[in-house]
Amino acid sequence: MKGWVKSQIPANAPLQPAHARSPEQNEFAVRGTLKFDASDSFDARLKFTFSKRTGDSSAANLQFVDCPLGAPQTGGVDDCRANGTVSSADAGANFAGLDPSFDGRGTFLTQKQVLTGLEMNYRPSDTITLTSVTGYYSTSLDSVGNFTASYVPSTYIHGRNYLSIDEFSQELRVTSDFDGPFNFTTGGHFQDSRVKSGAHSFLNANAPVEILEYLLKQDGLGYSAFAQGTFDILPTLEISAGGRYSHERKKLPFIGTDTTRNPSNPLIEQTAIVAKRSFNNFSPEFTLSWRPSKDMTVYGSYKKGFLSGGFNSGAANFATNLSYDQQLIKGFEGGAKVALLDGTLHANLALYSYRVTGLQVTVTTGGGTVQELRNAGKVSSKGIEFDFSYRPPVDGLRIDGALSYNRGRYLDYQATCYRGQNANSPVPCLNQLNRVSGNMALLQDLSGTELLRAPEFAGNLSADYHVAVGNGLELGLGADMTYSDSYLTDASSKAAGRSPSYALLGASVRLGQQDNGWQVALIGRNLTNKYFWTRSIDNPFSGTPASGGTTAGVLGDTVGPITRGRELMLRLSYSFR
């Protein structure tokens, strides 16, 4: 891939990118499945996936999406709009002398992933199935990038990030298939993980100064036991109840950092303020289902769940507590599933109301150079979801659609302030008591405001039609539309980070053999060339620091990675089935 954005850096500027289009990437992947059926009582399935990606860094498509002063405050030329252009420079030659690992390659990314899974099923009888699922996942990433979206040497942050993850998991479960009113599933799960994360960053491409170097290791161990049973109270009424108990442990066996800011010095091992955390949780679930007819099911459920806590791997100040807490969720869901028009129309309607405690939110600290996970206080999410699938009385035609309404609000959340925010901002930035830590801090209270990345309305609609055209060939036509309301993308709820609403249109034309074999397809995505983003932050060195006073500040420039614009592709495929 040669990339979908073009450089708009002037030809006379230093540090020209290595190529005019980015992100330039090469990707290779292989995936295979091996099935084994020894008898009616035993079968196994082994899946293996390997992928490798090389090319530009993860920051190659970082763009200015808003500049309060009309142009980047760090200097240089940029149109400050989400589109198909960037103004991100290459590395230059001065960094390799301070860290040989940069080796003059400029910006780059190399990532490898391995994912394997072995599922084995043994049936000692017609009513009992014993299942074992063994999994292994490994990934390594090495990336060097420009994290200020700029080509001005003095404001250039050039950083290397590396990550490796190794995880092993094992699940055992027993499932029944009795003829009677009661059936169950029960089992246990084990997971062991090893993570290494590090970074080495410099400021100023002309005279580099080290601003960050660290290596952090995190180990995780988790156990869980679960059980679920269903009971037919009546032929049309079923109750299901279950729960999962989880115990997870996280620890930091090593933290190393360069406190001298001298790249020639080795990392110095640090003592973590909190080096071990453990989390225990019991999450129950209850569901009542009523089937008044074979074409309709009405249900209601109560659920609890959790997401384990851990340690931040990107925090620059290792003299602080690096841990974040678990995320808890509980709530209700109910709805109906129906089949109408002799089974040609299937529709689902669901209403939900959930409350989250300790929502894990990524925030930017360290003057805009460090990202870390923190916990929001309480969050409410309520909404309605509807989807349908319809096969009208036209052979080969299928229509699918979905629509959702969501109201997500912070109930209790004190967030960091964005650059330029002050006491007179729409949400005031004030020196106030942090309700979590008990310390005074410069914060904004987002309680009652819109949740991050939570569009109010979203939906999609698609149609697909295929018809025989003779000589054993089949013609296929497809069209689809995806819509989303605008939503906030900056964890500080900065208005300039709001991504616009969008409607993405796609279409395809396919021609191939009727009974598998070859197929050629012309596919168009995002045909109206819409640009949006899902994440944004204040660009370092722009705007004025947040203040609890009333003096007007200057808002910082907002940057974020932008989605692809219009895509046209030709796909050739062959099916051996």
Automatic annotation (TrEMBL):
GO BP annotations, alphabetical order: iron ion transport
Domain (TonB-dependent receptor-like beta-barrel) ranges: 91-527
Cellular component, GO annotation: cell outer membrane
Region annotated Disordered, chain positions: 1-25
Protein's membrane topology: Multi-pass membrane protein
Cellular localization per UniProt: Cell outer membrane
Sorted UniProt keywords: Cell outer membrane, Ion transport, Iron, Iron transport, Membrane, Receptor, TonB box, Transmembrane, Transmembrane beta strand, Transport
Main location: membrane
Matches recorded under PANTHER family: FERRICHROME IRON RECEPTOR-RELATED, TONB-DEPENDENT OUTER MEMBRANE RECEPTOR
Protein name (database record): TonB-dependent receptor
